[in-house]
Amino acid sequence: MAAQDKVIASILVLHSMLGAVWTYWMASRFGFPVLFLIFNIALVLVGLAAGIGWFRERRWAAWLGSLFFAMQLIHIATTNFHFSFTLGFSMIVAMGWFGVARVGINLFALVMLFWLGVRVAVSGSPFKRSSALPDASGS
Description:
Keywords: Membrane, Transmembrane, Transmembrane helix. This protein is an alpha+beta fold. It is about 55% helix and about 15% strand.
């Protein structure tokens, strides 16, 4: 396993664990809202599974890792609606319209999503599908 892949796997696991702590801390401040806990813990589990799978060089880990960071990418806030997932690390750049709405992007998630894509696409990556499929004889 390449050193960069170990770093990505470590970031996925660390980010997820930090997200679990952050989720508990935020929920304890607001009375443990059920939907908040369900969605955040689900995202934490996706990140942990992706990190562990990435350490083990499993192909599905690339998909889970991409989902993990994609869910944290977009941030929308209006007077009636709010969508934002950040589990720990984030750097959000947002643009607003006269206090009515704000749309932002998590630059950390964007960089990580790009880096995951590059690591999956490199030559010799264990996350790429083999172009050589076995024939009917199984060889």
